[in-house]
Write a structure and sequence with these properties.
By secondary structure, this protein is of the alpha/beta class. The protein is 37% helix and 20% strand. The chain contains 14 helices and 13 strands. A 7-stranded parallel β-sheet has the order 5-6-7-8-9-10-11. Strand 1 and strand 2 form a beta hairpin. Helix 9 runs parallel beside helix 11. The longest helix is centred in the N-terminal third of the chain and has 19 residues. The protein starts with a strand and ends with a strand.
Length: 368
Amino acid sequence: MTGVQVELRTVRMPLVRVFRTSRSVESVRELLLVRWIEHDSEGWGECAADPRPVFFPEYLTAARDLIEQVLVPLVVADGPVSAGRARQLMQEVPGNQLAKAALETAILDAELRRAGMSLTGYLGGSGRRVPVGVSVGIAADLDELLRWVEGYLDDGYRRVKLKIQPGWDVEPVAAVRRAFGDDLPLQVDANQAYRTSDLTVLRRLDEFGLLLLEQPFPKEQLIAHARLREAIATPVCLDESVTSLDSAATALALGAADVVNIKPARVGGYLEARSIHDLCLAQGVPVFCGGVLETGVGRAANLALATLPNFTLPGDISATSRYYAQDITQSFELVDGCLEAPDGPGSGAIVDTDVLERVTIDVRTLHA
């Protein structure tokens, strides 16, 4: 026994607005938190797995079981635990990036809090102010969409991303351009909804001067994305296709991306995310930090990552109030289109245990 406790806590939190993409509709966020407790420190990680495998291959109960039955026993079996060593050991387990990311992040958070070091400093970031954008879900109609966008611009967001799907693409993008002008930094995200036979529609998006077109094709279709780059003027961004440093290197070698969206949860954690950032920086490919409707636990850590130098595009981190009326940590809100990365030790997230208890629907405690 190492004396470590690991708490696996499932929480259920209502969203302030229904969030609809080409793949799902969410009004409530149900997610898994990992708390790594040692005698002199503790840390938190957040698992992005949904209750059902709609967006990611993993799902919540499977990720929880894997952490409990496989990953925790694996990382504590070899003496003192560190995030770097845990990352190395977990490579023995294929796939399961979401579960690995949550556990690794909790261990790293505890490690840094013990040392009194911020995640920003550990990753090599600089400064605290992070320009952010907002991701706008698929609306019921154009009037609703325009009201949403107007509200977000009034809030101070510097960039707008519209979720699109076949049948909801050219018209809503045109409506937003007409209403808010050509100077609005605007991009679109398809979440893999299109096929190569949709090239005519995707070409039509060129007329709107978009920052980028994100993940139009299924994640495995890197060659299709590379060919699309040659066929359209809009920069092509990869999201779901990038699940690791190796997959990022392959995508860039094939010429499949002008931009990469780095989601730490999707790639296996912040250590892997930093490596992908460094690869893209070396190859002159800009990146931005994606989001998965995180609580403040994940939002704080994402802000730390986004202080690295190649995060040159506003990320999808967004303010707390964009998603939750009451979060389980301190609130992160816009100031001049930016959020501030916390300067405290670890991720800097401060968990409100009273709120946490109110939204908790299940707790498992492991003694490792």
